[in-house]
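re the bet — no i am not wrong, look at it urself. input seq straight from the record:
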Amino acid sequence: MGLPEVMLMNWRLDDIPVYELTETTVSAADFNRVQLAFHRIEQTLHIPLTGLRSLELILEREAWIVVDHDANDLPILAWTDFQSGHRSSLHQPVPCTLKTYHMHARVILEQVHDFMARELAARIAERQKACELENVVPLIPPRKRP
């Protein structure tokens, strides 16, 4: 019996030497959008980074990881150690650690962010459309006014 994919990827992050380690923050909008996607779609999300060779963004609760499928799924960069428990409101950024595993990983940060924002917005909107309240039939018919 193998390890679940989430556990396997987190284990691999600890096993690979980090090129650069930076304490940073993730914007509240991005963190909240990912959390919403976890609740509405799935616990692990895969976003192909079209136009960036064979790179894919894997979103998990513990880490957001960009992997290179041509290099045996080695990580290129990863956001880890999210400290969301210390936020007193949803509009505050979330402290985390950015780990880069390649000397040029920072070059794609903005593109990864753009892909993630667009793809999650589209997936959440698609899910919302499927669950619109207009499609729900009320159990109690509305009262007629005299």
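see?? Helices lie at 5-15, 28-40, 109-130. told u. also Residues 109-130 form the longest helix (22 residues). so pay up
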